[in-house]
Design brief:
- There is one protein chain.
- 26% of the residues lie in helices and 28% in strands.
- By secondary structure, the protein is an alpha+beta fold.
- It has two domains: 104 residues, no CATH class; 132 residues, no CATH class.
- The strands form eight sheets. It has a three-stranded antiparallel sheet, with no helix packed on it. A three-stranded antiparallel sheet has the order 11-12-13, with no helix packed on it. A two-stranded antiparallel ribbon has the order 1-2.
- A hairpin with a 4-residue loop joins strand 11 and strand 12.
- It starts with a helix and ends with a helix.
């Protein structure tokens, strides 16, 4: 009796965790450059003194879907998208390099070039800082040129070049900060073959319909697990009454 109750209880708990991951994907179906997370279940034996006579279910995130999202034209000079493979380099919360496909850039009052989430964009020498400008132009290779404030269109100054990299996908993993990081801690070098498009953004690669279907399936799984727990509890009560009668 305790085996079925334990399995159903652990299954219900892990279903809720999987539902959390799926809900996060669905909530970011409109987030620029977002990469959806996978989730899967597997049974694990409970190790301890003696033989592992019990098992429990475990939900885990085996990885992320790194496929490209759709490219949408915005016409904004600070919106950029990578054409094909590659990643923007940003400053992670730990101060080290991290990688993203989100190109919704902003300029802070201090002149720092950051993404929509506030992560600093890296250039050839670290985070990029821009002086006041009349106009900003970002080339296909990531070169940032500006018309300084107060100058005319004939004055064009090259400020920096956005660092674009293309590490092996099998060496990338998404951490809790939402950015991709290299598994071995290596720092990829800039790749001149990575090109960008100005005035466009890459959307999320989440399929909202599939995420909604998955949400319904997980809800049904949770309901099934709770029914198993209820049946196990009822059977335990009936068994106790039979023992009293004996």
């Amino acid at each position: 009796m305790d085996r079925s109750l334990y399995i159903a209880m652990s299954g219900a708990k892990q279903t809720l965790l999987a539902q959390t991951a799926n809900a996060n994907n669905l909530a970011n179906s409109q987030t620029t450059g977002f990469k959806s997370d996978f989730e899967q279940f597997r049974s694990m034996p409970v190790f301890g003194p003696g033989f592992p006579s019990r098992v429990y279910s475990m939900a885990e995130r085996p990885g992320s879907d790194l496929s490209m999202g759709s490219i949408q034209t915005t016409g904004n000079d600070l919106d950029i998208a990578i054409k094909g493979e590659g990643w923007f380099v940003v400053e992670g919360k730990d101060g080290n390099e991290a990688y993203t496909r989100a190109g919704d850039l902003r300029i802070t009052p201090e002149g720092r070039l950051v993404t929509g989430t506030g992560a600093a964009i890296y250039g050839e020498g670290g985070p990029i800082t821009l002086p006041p400008a009349e106009k900003i132009d970002i080339g296909n290779d990531g070169t940032i040129s500006i018309i300084p404030m107060g100058d005319n269109a004939s004055t064009l100054a090259v400020i920096d070049r956005i660092k674009l990299v293309n590490p092996e996908l099998k060496n990338l993993e998404k951490l809790n900060d939402g950015f991709m990081h290299t598994k071995d801690g290596s720092v990829p070098v800039a790749d001149a073959n990575v090109t960008i498009v100005q005035g466009a953004l890459e959307g999320s690669n989440v399929n909202a319909v599939s995420a909604l279907v998955e949400m319904i399936e997980l809800a049904r799984n949770f309901e099934l697990q709770t029914k198993v727990m209820k049946n196990a509890d009822d059977n335990s009560g009936i068994s106790a009454k039979l023992m009293q009668m004996a």
